Each structure stands twice: as structure tokens, then as C-alpha cells.
Fold Major facilitator superfamily (MFS) profile domain-containing protein.
Amino acid sequence: MKEPHQTPRNKRGPFGLSRNVFFLGLTSFFNDLSSEMVYPLLPTFITQYLGASVFFLGLLEGLGDSIASLLQIFVGWFSDRVRRRKGLVVGGYSVSGLARGALVVVGTPWQALIAWFINRVGKGIRTAPRDALISHSCNEKERGRAFGYHRSMDHSGALLGSALASVLLAAFYIEYKALFAIAFIPAVLGVLLLTFGIRDKGRTECSQAQEVPRLRLSLKPFDTRFRWLLLTVFIFTLGNSSDAFLLLRASQGSAIPLALLPALWGVLHVVKAAISIPGGALSDRIGRRRVILAGWGTYVLAYTGFALIAGPAWIWFLFVFYGFYYVTEAVLKAFVADLVAPELRGTAYGIFNFTISVTVLPASLMMGFLWDSAGPKYAFLVGAGLAFLAILIFIAAIKDG
């Protein structure tokens, strides 16, 4: 899809990126610094500190994403309609930061579920308009690099957050809730940078675009390849349960101590951050399809490894290997922009993110149920099988944009 009047309005900022892309990356850095100080400890906080079951962990992980995903379509469409993205993005990041801060005062599993649910609602509010704002703040040939930069900053913040959590746990013997309180500080900083750093593109973002139609749950306005992409993403994500189960596998099956769980999580984010920009740029050169298939193939092999292999050394290796799968995050978002007209991108990202998020609840509940009833081996093998099915459909039905 060609962009109307794209180059003149996107002034270059640091690292050759537009101002909006640069500051959205910084915001994501600080938000994930905050989030990943909390997230690696969430499985043990829920199952050990609060005494909940693995199935409840799956409910907590899946419910927030699934319900919040309903917001993605509406918020994406609304941002297309009004062509004002910034307020929604700021509001979404603010809600998430406040909800994570509320973990400091929870005392029961259900209170933790409510707090985490609200955190995910914030993600549902911000994601589609943020992705649309990124796509309109770079030209067509830089789209993979722009989304790659954003994901790289996201993962770099997660790496620093995980490392900081490990240091605080190992060196200062800090407890869960004190760590959650410290994690609230970078969340506030990220919202301040977002508020004062980015500028809404307004109606200049689509100066030749048609009026956005009223919201309908219909895929008729979209390219056939976009519809097939949604189907394959749905099947893949149905087998892609929360990464919290990887941390649980490490702590239970391979005896990784609590203080090293954030460090293990940080190693995963080293790989994520390292591959995001070159992976996105590679997709600009050789096509999105090849990079997506390579990433999904990595996922199948990694989940098979988590099913069949135990031991601390293997777990560290599998976390590193699994990180290469995340090259698909930025590339899939760039692929959506390739397949969808500019005036419908907010709606398209809403539908795309909804398709991913709506499967999180059944995927996580299925993983928790299989884990409790048949063991982690079969739970991970089912996930690998669904991902392999998605690959076969993708190969048969989808070509590059």
C-alpha cells in the first residue's frame, strides 16, 4: 500500500528515526523495565506466595488478555475515526502502570487476578493506536526497521528490568511487594516521556484517505491474505500459551532458584533485543514471509525441547534458542501494514491484536489443564503441534505483500 505524502512530514530524529518512533520506543523501554521486574516472579508469587494452582495461573494470564482484546478492535477503529492516537496511547500505558503498582497491596489470588486484568486492559487500550502511529511515522521502506526498533527497545527494557530484579533479590534479599513498589517508578517515567515526547499525526496522517466506515465485525474491506494471516495467527497462538509456563518449567522441572529466574528471563530478552532491528530490516529486504516462517519454525523446535529435555544447562540453552522466535513480533506487524490500506490500519491492528489476545485464555487454560492432568511434557508438545499446523497453512495460503 502506497503512503500519501509520506516522506516530507516525517522529520528525522535520533538514529535516523522519526521523533514519534524514537519516543514510543523509549516509552516501551521504561514500561517493560517496570513490567519485567514483576513478570518473572509472577508464577511463583501466584502459586507459592499466594497459594494458587497452576490452572489458576493460566486463568490469570489468559483472562486479562482475552477480555481486554475486545477493546482492541473498538479502540483501533476509534483511533482511525478520530485520527487522534496519542491520548489513547498515554491512557493505556497509565492504566497498566497503576495496575501493576496495585500488586503491592494484594493479599489473595483473586485480588492479584483483578490487578493483572486491569494491567492487560491498559495494553488493550494502547496497542492498536500505538502501532498505527508507528506505521504512519515512517515511510514504507523503513517500516520493518521502525517496528524492529520499537520491539528492540521493548526487549532492552525487559532485559534491564529482569537484571535489576535479580540483583535486588540476590544482593538485598528484597521481598516480592517491595520489588513491585520499586517497579512502579520506571512506569511513571515512561508515561511522562510519552506525554511530552510524541506528537499526534492528526488528520495529516492520511490526507488522501477515505472516510473510515462505521465499525462492523466484517473482514470484507481487507485483502484475502490478511484474512488468511488472521487464521494462521489464531491457530499458532492457540498453542502459544503464556511464557509464565516457561518460567514455571524452569523453577519446577530444572530447579532454577528464585533469584536466578529474572536473570534467566533477562537472557531471553537479550536475544529478543538483539534480533528485533536486524530481523525487521531483513524482512524489508527478503520479504516478511520467510522471516515469519523461520521464527515459527524456531518456536516448534523450542517447545519440543521444553517438553523432552530437563536440567539447568538445557533450560538456559532453550531460553536463548526460544528468543529467536520473537523476530516474528515486529515482522508480523510490518506485514499487516503491507496488506492493509492506511486509513484502515488502526482497525486492522485492532483485529490482528484481538486475534492474538482472544486465544490467550484458552491457550493458557489448556496449558494449565494439561500440565495438571498429564504433565508438562504433553502440554508443550500440544503447543508445538498447533504451531506446526499454522506453519503448513501459512505456506499454502499466504504470499508476501
Observations:
- The radius of gyration is 20 Å.
